[in-house]
Specification:
The protein has 201 residues and is α/β, with parallel strands linked by helices. It is 34% helix and 18% strand.
Length: 201
C-alpha cells in the first residue's frame, strides 16, 4: 500500500494465492488467480519485486504484463540473481546454480539454514530446501532473460544503478562505489539483484 500512501489512487495488487493480511477497506484492491484479470491496456505502470524467481512460466507472465500495459507504459521488475552467493530463500551458498542432494545435506548438517528452520533436524532442512529449489524456484540466466524479453517488450534496460541509489534496504550504501566504478553495477546484477525496466511502445 506504499503507492497509495504516496498519492497514487488507482493502485491494484495481484498474487496467485490470497495470503494477505490487509485492512478490509484495502482488500478490494487485490485480486488473485493464475493470470492477470484485467483488460488489455489497463495500466501505466506495473511493479514486481522478488516474484519472478518463483514463476515456472515467466514468458507467459511477461506477455500478460505486456498485454495489460498501456502504450507508453513501463514494468519495473526486481528479482534476485541466479548467481547470488547466498541463495535468499534457503540460505544455501550458490543454491541457485548448484544444489545436489549431498551438498544440501552437508550444508544442513553444518548448520546453514534460514531462521525459520532453526531447531529442525538437518535431514528435514535438506528435504525442505530440495523441495523448494525444485518446485518453487526457477532461476534464469542473464542470456535466457535477454532472449525472452527481446521477443516480448519493445524496449528494456537494466537499471540496477538507480535501484541501488533509490531502492530500499542496505543496497543504497553501495551507490557511491557504483558511481565511481561502473563495472560494479554489472557485478551487482550478476551476483545480487537484477532490476529491469521494460517498456511498451
Amino acid at each position: 500500500m506504499e503507492y497509495v500512501a504516496a498519492g497514487f489512487g488507482e493502485v491494484q495488487g495481484f498474487d496467485v494465492v490470497d495470503y494477505l493480511q490487509v485492512a478490509d477497506d484495502e482488500r478490494p484492491r487485490f485480486k488473485f488467480g493464475r493470470s492477470l484479470p484485467w483488460d488489455d491496456a489497463s495500466f501505466n505502470f506495473v511493479f514486481a519485486t522478488q516474484v519472478f524467481e518463483h514463476i515456472p512460466n515467466p514468458e507467459e507472465v511477461y506477455r500478460d504484463i505486456y498485454r495489460v500495459l498501456k502504450p507508453g507504459g513501463c514494468f519495473l521488475n526486481v528479482f534476485p540473481s541466479k548467481w547470488r552467493p547466498i541463495e535468499p530463500h534457503t540460505g544455501v551458498p550458490f543454491a541457485g546454480v548448484f544444489a545436489p542432494d549431498a551438498y544440501l545435506r552437508l550444508c544442513a548438517r553444518l548448520g546453514i539454514r534460514m531462521t525459520q528452520q532453526r531447531g529442525l533436524p538437518s535431514d528435514m532442512v535438506a528435504a525442505k530446501n530440495r523441495t523448494q529449489l525444485a518446485e518453487q524456484l526457477h532461476y534464469l540466466s542473464g542470456r535466457e532473460i535477454d532472449e525472452m524479453l527481446s521477443n516480448i517488450f519493445d524496449d528494456y534496460e537494466y537499471v540496477e544503478d538507480t535501484f541501488i541509489e533509490k531502492g530500499p534496504g542496505r543496497s543504497r550504501y553501495l551507490s557511491v562505489p557504483a558511481r565511481i566504478v561502473p563495472p560494479f553495477r554489472l557485478l551487482y546484477r550478476f551476483a545480487h539483484t537484477r532490476a529491469l525496466l521494460l517498456r511498451k511502445s
